[in-house]
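Deviation from plan, reported transparently: adenosine-5'-triphosphate complex.
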Amino acid sequence: MWTRWLASNPTPRVKAALMIQPTSLLSPPPRILPSRPACLRPNVTMSTDLDQSTHLNEIFKQKGILRTQVRKALKFMDPSLRSQEDNAIQSIVLEAPWFKSSRSLCAYISCTSLREVDTSKLLTEILRNPAKDGCAQTGKKLYVPRVEDKNSHMRMLNISSMDDLIANSMNILEPAPEDHVGNVREDVMQANVPVDLFLLPGLAFDKSGRRLGRGGGYYDTFLRKYQELARERNWKDPLFVGLSYSLQIMDEGVIPVTLHDVLVDALVTPSGVIPISPSAIERIDVGC
Ligand SMILES: Nc1nc2c(c(=O)[nH]1)N(C=O)[C@@H](CNc1ccc(C(=O)N[C@@H](CCC(=O)O)C(=O)O)cc1)CN2
Ligand SMILES: Nc1ncnc2c1ncn2[C@@H]1O[C@H](COP(=O)(O)OP(=O)(O)OP(=O)(O)O)[C@@H](O)[C@H]1O
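Because the crystal trials were delayed, the predicted structure below was used instead.
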């Protein structure tokens, strides 16, 4: 798995991040060893929980600084460049064989005030040709985010039209739990068909797959749970694809990460697709 690839190939910066995780961010949790008398303890300096949480706070602080810088750059982005880049990114996705062949997708509903890469054309195309019951070979099924609470809990619910969406307290369009006739919307975690493709928002990305979100932890928490589900069911890993304006691509090492952060498999920028993980290199190069 790609996230495991990171853990076994850390860059010096990631290595530092990996060494300072508090127990709650380590996976799997460490085994609990019986304590030894002080005289038998090795005479080495161990990092304490306090050191670890100080370092973790430092990472979150660095993330906050980077978020502020990127938000500012997005605010001052030339509107005609923005619209040119929105069109270029969406055209690249629409033409991509891995998009055309996808049958079940999770995508975000772009929010103008957050200055996110526009997904409106992609959503229109996905909804134009819905998957019909009993005919999974054609058409696409779309799931979009719904924030459930402030504890990084988000679900992905099925919609069949943009009219299914209403603005939430953050002014992001999202589906109500039930449709207009009172039927409970399908949650992607209950679906019996795997998601092939996730189109992901982010404030910043790099070419090694790091992604800086908006700080809620919603996507990282969700993506990790979905990876676990796919593994339990022996499904192929979905492709995690970030959509990024040029100015959101950072040099490697600039985006701070913790073990909680999930890497993207590929990026779509106005200049093209950047496959990153081994599975993305395989799927994107062979065109499916
Ligand atoms: N379109 C879209 N939908 C999404 C997300 C997203 O990033 N984009 N999310 C991804 O998690 C979840 C919602 N999480 C969000 C987290 C923060 C903000 C937000 O307004 N952030 C402000 C700063 C707020 C502050 O710091 O006080 C901002 O980034 O400018 C919005 C959504 C689920 N739905
Ligand atoms: N100093 C801190 N110590 C511990 N946890 C924190 C700290 N600051 C933020 N968090 C929590 O860590 C979680 C992940 O934050 P992180 O910055 O990685 O989010 P993100 O990757 O930007 O967001 P998303 O996954 O939604 O895109 C959030 O739930 C956040 O509340």
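Residues 1-44 have pLDDT under 50 and may be disordered. We consider this an acceptable substitute for the interim report.
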